[in-house]
Amino acid sequence: QITAPYLHIGAITIMVLLSWPVALHAIRADKKVVQVIIVGPYLAILLFLFLIPLGMYSPCIREMGTLGPKPALIGHRGAPMLAPENTEMSFQKTIEHGGDGLETDVTISYDGVPFLMHDSTLRRTTNIKEVYPNDTAQNAALFSWDTLQELNAGTWFLKDKPFSCMGSLSRADQNQAMNQSIYKLSNFLRLADSQNKLVIFDLYRPPEKHPYRNSWINRTLEVILDEAGIRPHLVLWLENDMRSFVQSVAPGFQQTMGSKAPVEDLLMDNIVKLNLAYTEMSSEDIR
């Protein structure tokens, strides 16, 4: 399925190159029988090469009605090539481009406010070096929400240009990116709910001696169910710890697994979706 098209094109190219010597020998032949012997097999092979694609199987060609549903497009940390990752602007860009869902990473501040941050520190995606230069190595969960709100979460994007294939931003987008701040989980969920978008997130457990170290899932559920009020079916719950408890208090969540497991285990845990890397899956797994 991978090499066949190249072999086919190569064979046709060879036949085209052979057309000149074949034609030359056919013209120089004195008898028609000899000409037919020379040209006949050549034309038969050429016709075969042109018709063979009609009999080839390709997984890309399906009978009407047999094609599965279109894959859902999930914005990984929003649209990080168009806006600073995990910011309101990034998720707005995903929505503008027709994304079906939003993916993010959730950390809990020292005073119990869940916010969006992928890295364990604030060094890469905020201006903490300028505001708190002595705290750049501090775990992001050890800052209070008031302190986090002081930081800019967008200027690094224009300065570092994290993707080599980034297009040029309009002046309006540049100004908007420069004014992005750390995004709160509750606001993220309200945005998703207002646009009827699915949400999926990695939930990071706070470090040792953090006030919410042992109640991180409970605190996150409070925000989802009580503060944000997002419709439960839009939440793809990925965290595996305390899954049975989560199902008991939020039965409407779509339970999602981040690793492969036997079908029996998936059914027992009420898993309805899998979040897997294609590079770690075989073709049989994908089917």
Automatic annotation (TrEMBL):
GO terms for cellular component: membrane. Coiled coil: none annotated. InterPro entries: GP_PDE_dom (IPR030395), PLC-like_Pdiesterase_TIM-brl (IPR017946). It is found in: Membrane. One of its GO terms (molecular function) is glycerophosphodiester phosphodiesterase activity. Belongs to the glycerophosphoryl diester phosphodiesterase family. This is GDPD5 protein. It comes from Calonectris borealis (Cory's shearwater).
